[in-house]
Amino acid sequence: MSDKIKYEIEFPIQSSPQLLFQYLSTPSGLSEWFSDNVNSRGEFFTFIWDDSEEVAKLLGKKTNERIRFQWEEDEGTSYYFELKIQVDEITKDVSIIVTDHSDEDELEEAKMLWDNQIGSLKQVLGSR
């Protein structure tokens, strides 16, 4: 198995950090844009799409700032995905910084997937 590459993508988003964090950290919020349905039991979140399910462990979160998950298949590795809310101190512009890991040959596809996912989040939020 080859090593995955860590990458970051920044997405400007028009939302308050508090509202945004609800969509990033709660099963009901995540199910509005990230997957069809989300269930959580303790630190484990089950993400459901059409006919597949993926389980991710909540590695940590800081209210209104960031949340970090690790897919079950990546257990025992340093791979995770993180959604971080960044607010520019001067302009107060809000961005989401996505940190994730991907195989090199799937990197562009992974970035496009996040682009689509964050696009869905922006639609839900009424952001541009």
TrEMBL record:
Highest rank taxon of the organism: Bacteria
Residues covered by the START-like domain: 1-126
InterPro entries: START-like_dom_sf, START_2
Coiled coil region boundaries: none
Protein name from the UniProt record: SRPBCC domain-containing protein
